[in-house]
Amino acid sequence: MHIRLRNISQSPIFAPVKPGQQDTNRDAGAGYTLLTIGITFALTLALFVYGGLRLDQRMGTTPLWTLVGAVVGMGLAGFWMYQRLRRFSQVGK
Fold first, then answer.
1. Distance linking the first and last C-alpha atoms of the chain
2. What is the 3-state secondary structure (H, E, C) of 16-68?
3. Which residues have a Cβ under 8 Å from the Cβ of 70 and sit 6 or more positions away?
4. Fewer Cβ within 10 Å of end Cβ, the chain: N or C?
């Protein structure tokens, strides 16, 4: 059995959206965009906290670098998230 991409891509299911039609995939794309922003925020914060924890273990300064990593990670991730959300809200207008 051979599956040809040409036959699949020309299927009526994958018809292009006409100017008068509403794009139902846009809502799903918006959800994935917001999910990506949230996951990136969490991973950035976790990475900086982990880096601070490792520095604390190496230097013997228990809460200092973990807190610095948390503050710096939250600041950078928050700034990045603010920029992405501002760009995301401007695209919908």
1. 47
2. CCCCCCCCCHHHHHHHHHHHHHHHHHHHHHHHHHHHHHHHHHHHCCCCHHHHH
3. 45, 48, 49, 52
4. N
Name the residue type at position 5: L
Task: Tell me the per-residue pLDDT of 29-65, one tens digit each, with 9 for 90 and over.
Answer: 778 888 999 999 999 999 999 999 999 999 998 899 9
In terms of Cβ atoms closer than 10 Å to its own Cβ (0-12, 13-18, 19+), residue 20 is exposed
Single-letter amino acid, residue 75: G
Helices 64-91 and 25-59 sit at what angle, rounded to 10 degrees? 170
Quick check: 77 and 45 in contact, CB under 8 A? yes
- Both tokens assigned to 18: 């006409």
Tokens 């603010």 sit at which residue? 82
Q: How many residues does the chain have?
A: 93
Q: Give the global pTM.
A: 0.65
